[in-house]
Amino acid sequence: MSEAAAAAGHGGAPRHGVRIAVIWALATAVVVPLVIWVVGPHIPPGTMSQQTRDQHTVNVALTALATPVLLLIWVYFAYAIRNFRADPGGAVLDGPAITGNSRIQTTWLVVTAAMVLGLAVFGTADLFSAAGAGGGEGPRPVPKPAGANTALQVQVIGQQWLWTFRYPSYGGVETPTLDLPVNRVIEFHVTSLDVVHSFWAIELGIKADAIQGADNVAYATPLRTGSFQVRCDELCGLWHGHMNTTGQVLTDAAFTNWIAGQQRKYAGVTKYLPPYSLVYYPQPTGNAP
Ligand SMILES: [Cu+2]
What we know:
Shape: elongated
Bound molecules: copper (II) ion
Strand order of the largest sheet: 3-2-1-5-8
Strand content: 15-25%
């Protein structure tokens, strides 16, 4: 008696569905923990800020959830290649036409609907709990992180093809480098002087469009010191690819020192800059004129 006959169901036909389900369940039980604990720590974007931490958790959750789906396809595929083939030299026969299977259809609809709707709820809740989760939220953000009242405001000014960073609470000094204090909420006001750019502070988990005439607020809370990359992520003309810089997250003392140095260095320029007004529309206070 063959292996196939041993697993035969009613009428002697092998119960392919049950076999596929068992193989799939075993594969899932082995692979999903590997995805979470072995692959998971290497999934971007790291843990430099609260935002990247949240994004990392979401990425691991989505990958873990997609794994059983992928495995089902692979297991079915391999099973079909191995078992549903014509005997060598035999005639190629087709099975009877299948016109419907309400059990499979219902299961399929219920499972996929539950996954998609569940993810929609999960994603929406996460957007709110993580204060926009690193994306630009427009001029008046609805979810704000704890500590937003005492956030350090930084206006990001995009223009073809460089970034400038303005610190309103430090006399409006503008610098070509972005340095930030650690463990403090940063409130970015992302703006543009010309075309549409996208402010992408990769390791901080921030990506927000820079649009002329719009104040796009995004929050980040750096959790450790170190450097991070800043790039433009919106094709903005000839030297778009050149529009990048490196930022630093510093200790409080080092930041205070750095910003004081910038104020001294650019004092001669800062005094000619207008008080925050229409010149850099919109204002970094979030109150567009
Ligand atoms: Cu750009």
